[in-house]
Amino acid sequence: MRLQCLVFITFITVATTALAQDAQPASDPQVSQGTQTPEISKTENPPEPEAHGSRLHWHDIPKNVLHDEKAIFTSPFHINRDNAKWWLLFGGATGILIANDQRISDAMPQKNVLTRSSTWASRLGADYSIYPMWGTFYLVGKAGNNPRARDTGRLGIEALIDADITVNILKLVTQRPRPENQGDKVAFFSGGDAFPSGHSIKSWALARVAAREFPDKKFVPILAYSAASAVTVARVAGRRHSPSDALVGSAMGFFIGDFVYRHHHAPSEKSNALSWLSNHVDVGFNVGGSPRLLSTTVPNPLQRSLNY
Predict the structure, then answer these.
(1) Which secondary-structure segment (H or E) carries 90?
(2) Burial of 114 (0-12, 13-18, 19+ CB in 10 A)
(3) CATH number among 1.20.144, 1.10.600, 1.10.287, 2.40.50, domain 49-272
(4) Which residue, 198, 238, 276, 294, has most beta carbons within 10 Å?
(5) Coil/strand/helix, residue 62
(6) Helix (H) or strand (E) holding 280
(7) Alpha-carbon distance 303 to 288, whole Å?
(8) How far is CA 7 from each of CA 20, 122, 124, 190, 276, rounded to the nearest angstrom?
(9) pTM above 0.90, yes or no
């Protein structure tokens, strides 16, 4: 219990430090040269800077999760030249591990030097730890008026829901036992809930969201991916999962987190500024050929629903 509390406190401390460095003072709407900025009503989650604003509103999560799950389970039908390499890489690695899982399980000692530490690392990726810890991003952001923190909290919760639904469906279908005892059979469709690793899929989904949200703070991706890796290794070392369970869970979690970020995060200033302008600014031309601004539409990213 003391170790778990220490991990929890360390996580909050590191997260709070990163979020505090990124905090920006709120600015009031201004009037510029005859054009008045639209008045913004006060809401629970006020509009955020476009660079760190989420297109996700809390009440949109059920609808968005349905979109996400459809995309996840139909992804094999959308293999193309750009993503085929990832399917081949992880598909081949998974096949090799599945073919050797039984041999690895039989060769592993029942208890080893990592058994105890694996138990504690596994608890870090459990629901009773991971959901409250991730909620600190939103709470810190709300209390400190930090848009990026609130954004990270919202996106992370949706990634967790997506990962939970996906992994439980796959567990129900595959019915693979856990290699808890040396010599236990780990064949599919034998009654079990091991494939893929739920701890791994959720840990890597959150790690990817955090890494995408804080690319400018190098220690955040390093910390996030290190924690996710520790959870994955712990599940295998603690004989809770076969290696292929952990690999598939990690890979799926990584791509689920990336998918949620790309589809629910507002465009960044650097990569999508031109695309965003083309969708929200109409430009016409005067009789002489000079450009003329016709209209602009700057929607509240927290009040529009996602259409993709």
Answers:
(1) helix 84-107
(2) middle
(3) 1.20.144
(4) 198
(5) helix
(6) helix 273-280
(7) 39
(8) 20, 12, 8, 36, 40
(9) no
